[in-house]
Structures are given as structure tokens and as C-alpha cells.
Amino acid sequence: MYIRKNIMLGLAVVLIAGIGFSRTLAQEKSSSPVVTYFEHEKVNASFAKNAPLFGGESGVGKFKVLTARRDRPGEVEIHNLDTDIFYIVSGTATFVTGGKALETKTTAPDEIRGKSIEGGDSHQLSKGDVIFIPNGIPHWFKEVKAPFLYFVVKVR
Predict the structure, then answer these.
(1) What confidence tens digit (pLDDT) does each residue in 77-98 have?
(2) What's the pTM?
(3) What contacts 15, CB < 8 A, 6 or more positions away?
């Protein structure tokens, strides 16, 4: 009787653990979105390191959320696969989109960098602004008033 009780208890534990594990796997494979929360300490630490905050998938789209900090102008960027969405947290910058990228070089698959942009549209970015840059569009931080902090959502 004692052995039988232990076997039944063991089977119950395995069954409960299996149900929990199968739910976890189902959630991972499900197209249902999962809420992810980042406390401000983690966000601030990510800005300090200029590091990715999150990378994941939602349905069929892949995306990353980055915290970015600029203290000076940068190179022209052209992403052949990724669309960038910026949300400006603080600071100001002159941001140029479109036009023709000059002195370009491929730095990684589907990633091109350049020295400057000829033509294009100038945008004065400041706190609270949001800008979408579709894939294939040259974009460049021409002037930056430091510190310039912004979130980048990269969507593929």
C-alpha cells in the first residue's frame, strides 16, 4: 500500500509538471502576444550602456528594442531589411532622411554605411518626437546636441 501511494503521488507530480511545461511550450509557440515590462532602472542602465533592451518576435514579425545615446553626429545608415522607429527621450538633433548616401560601404549583410547625404529631408528631432524610417531609406544624424537619448524599434 505504501509503495502504491508513493507511485500515485509521483505520477501526480509528473502530470502536474508536464501540464505546466506543455503550457509554457504552447505559450512560446503561440501567436498570442506576451507582455514584457522593464522597470526604469533597467531602461536607464540600458541607455548608459547604449545596449539592446529587448529582441523578440510578435506573430510573424521580428523586432528589437534598443536604447540609443548619441553625443555626436554619426554615419549614414541604410538598412535593407529593417525599418527603424525612433522615439526621442531627450536632447535635440538634426536628422536627415532620403537623398543620396555618399561614400558608402557595406558593413554587414544588408547594412550599408556612408559619410554624408546629398539632398534629403532635414528633421529637427526633440523630446517626444517619433519618426519612422522604412527599410532602404538613407538616414543620418547630421548634428546632435548631447546627450541625445532615444528608443529604436527595429522591425524586420
Answers:
(1) 999 999 999 999 999 999 999 9
(2) 0.69
(3) none
